[in-house]
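Dear Dr. L.,

I hope this message finds you well. Following up on our conversation about the binding site, I have prepared a predicted three-dimensional model of the protein together with calcium ion. For your records, I am including the exact sequence and ligand specification that went into the calculation, followed by the structure tokens. Please feel free to forward this to your student if that is useful.
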Amino acid sequence: MKTIGIIPRHPFGLILGLIGLVSAGIIVCKPVALARAQVDWGIAQDVPVPADYDGDGRTDIAVYRPSTGTWFIINSSTGGWRTQQWGVPGDIPVPGDYDGDNRTDIAVYRDGTWFIFPPSNDACEGCWDY
Ligand SMILES: [Ca+2]
Ligand SMILES: [Ca+2]
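The resulting structure of the complex is given below.
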């Protein structure tokens, strides 16, 4: 991270410092936003798969664990989290909004076949093979 400026601790100096940063074209984040800027979610082997899974217009923090094929998603709308087992070791996570409902769908790619969750009731069982 690059230091872009130091804001004095004194309230009056803080205000001047913020005004200075804003006038310089630098976006100043609120302290609350900064406090939420770091989230521990996932382990070293996980693959980050951020997307809007709950459809509230904001990206959800999410990881895919290749060893178990498990998805761990923090819903930005509620702050709650969900897990979903979908995939096997070797699969490539390919989340996207495949049905157009503005919610990202969990999906994996395996040897030319796309497995979209939840599986549909048609004969294809949610698997698209191209
Ligand atoms: Ca979201
Ligand atoms: Ca969708």
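In brief: Confidence is low (pLDDT under 50) at residues 1-22, 28-34.

With kind regards,
A. P.
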